[in-house]
Amino acid sequence: MAHQAGGPWPAPRPVPEGLEAQTYLQDYATLMEAVPFPSLVVDHRWDVVLANSAFETLFREVGPHPTAMPGDNFLRFVLFHPDAGTVLGEHEPGWCLPMLAQFKAAVERFGHDHELQAIRREIAQDPIMEAAYRQGLPHWIRAVGEGAVEHDGAVRRLLHPDPRWGATECRVVGETPKTLQDMGYTRLTLVLRDSRRPATPARRPRRTPGNTTHLTIVPTAEA
User: What totals of helices (H) and strands (E) does the chain contain, helices first?
Assistant: First the structure.
């Protein structure tokens, strides 16, 4: 049903028990495949439950990573993959900070979740990201408004590997039907815009693994 960019998952993702729920997800995967834009379904940890071929195409040039592939856990990809900024334009303000804010909300709601706690420990190991998480986020949210945290409706930059799109924008559309919502899942679709619109600045140089000191726009202390 779902795949990592560049290949299948090394282990199957947990799915709801029951034949009806599994059949629904299979049918929903078929529906997603008919969508021409990158689309994914995630759980509260941002583990990717379903992703369509357009999503895989968007991230087809992303290099391997043991824990942060985009088709595995999208939150980890945004925060920790060294290639994230080569696909996600304006990576810090457009993608990383909103994801950090949503992660913080998830930790407050699902505080004992082992996977969320593991991500929290990884954030703590990076001094810049930890400062952004603990001190910079409240300042940033006050500066840009609560709406910047939400994904649904946000317009964000992308650097698509297909030259027909290239440096473009996408509208993030949340479209989660009740059945998926009851399973604890969320669906997001990246509606690509015509690349002839104002382009994203040139790609950032690829970061080397282990170097996550990229949150340069977030103050390390509140004003």
Answer: 9, 5
